[in-house]
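Justification of resources, computational component.

The compute hours requested in this renewal are based largely on the per-chain cost of generating structure records like the one below. Each record pairs the submitted sequence with a full structure-token output. That output is archived, and it is also reused by downstream analysis tasks.
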Amino acid sequence: MENTSGIQPVRYHCLIKMLPKEEKTKGGIILPEMQNERHELAREIGIFIASGGIAFTGGDGAPSWPSWNKPRPGQKVLFNRYAGSIQKGKDGELYRLIDDTELGAIVEEDYEA
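The structure output for this chain reads:
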């Protein structure tokens, strides 16, 4: 997956693309605009886009995560609620810039939070 955000994380930071907000619940209830904004900001699942050069190394350059367990660009990931900062990319999409330690899991493609 190509990084079209114009944001390149450095050091131990990771760039996560936030998934589009839901305007309705699964049951079909329409969420008010204010609730939609809160819901999107609280989202805990996104798409891993990129990471800085020392992400997942413990800061010393030595791998601290096994390579099979590191997220790859395009994979869905879970991260801590309200982690990092929200940035708008040059592509108009919303991203979170978070520390690598804020990632909790790599999730399967059909997983829904």
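The two ends are 22 Å apart (CA to CA). The mean pLDDT is 82.
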